[in-house]
Amino acid sequence: MTPTRQGSFRLFKFKGIAVHVHWSWFFVAIYSVSIRVPNYASPAWALAEYLALFLVVLLHEFGHALACRQVGGAADQIVLWPLGGVAYVAPPPRPGATLWSITAGPLVNVVLLPVFYGLFYAAGAAGAFEQNPDLFRFLRALIIMDVSLLVFNLLPIYPLDGGQILRSLLWYPLGRARSLLAATGIGFVGGLAIVGLAVWWRSVWIGIMAFYLLANCWQSFQQAKAMRQLEKLPRRPEFKCPVCHASPPVGRYWRCPACGQNFDPFATAAQCPHCQATLDLTPCPDCGNARTQRSWDASIRDA
Ligand SMILES: [Zn+2]
Ligand SMILES: [Zn+2]
Ligand SMILES: [Zn+2]
Asked: Which ligand has an atom closest to residue 286 CA?
């Protein structure tokens, strides 16, 4: 339910993070500029306003990506599409790391606000608005845009940033799976409220947004249920994932890449009992990172 590299092209790469733009974004860009044209005496300002929006969304996504890198997570791609930007971040599965990766996005909007206000007051004090009323409208639009993006993103509707922040906070008392169950539950209620709003305002655009949110919320709810099942399984305390420190479950939950049959690599020293192939890297069911069997061995690592 999120855009991928498919149907998008790479715009540029900064600090190892590739920025992609989805093709559908261009139609929305043309539409967005055209509805802004009547607001200004010169259409160039409408284009400038839209480019500013593009830049603000991009900076927000970079906030997520760079914060995620900072806490040791993976983030190498940002895709801009009509419903905004998506930063593909995989923070380490810890509440603090997740909280920082998510909060850094809206924090960019918070930091930008005094910058935009400063520009607005400086231009006003210099008397620039009398000479160019379009500049006044442009700077006012920047402030409204930044505040709107901030407020919208902070709604506690999973997977919006607000919903993910709520989830990270609930992670401390409830644990990884139950916090996601709770946040997606609240997200459903919020998503349905947005559907109601779309009907009330007769807005197709808000309807599409609500559908997108609900579909993603549902997907995460399923993920939370699977996580919950995983949490209930008996574990092997003698092994620990070198990335998230979770012990692997006891059972045949790994698939042999050579013969396709399931086996338990922790019972067989990573050797498939069906075809004798050896698993080079054993993926962690909890965090998805694959590491050598040796690095999973708690006794070797702690020694
Ligand atoms: Zn965000
Ligand atoms: Zn095999
Ligand atoms: Zn792990």
From this structure: 3
Distance, CA 274 to ligand 1 centroid (Å)? 46
Of the ligands numbered here, which is closest to the C-alpha atom of 58? 1
Q: What is the pLDDT of residues 218-231, one digit of tens each?
A: 999 999 998 898 88
pLDDT in tens, 184-224: 999 999 999 999 999 999 999 889 989 989 999 999 999 99
The per-residue pLDDT for 168 is 96
| CA quadruple 79, 83, 84, 87: dihedral sign | negative
Give the distance (Å) from ligand 1 centre to CA of residue 60.
6
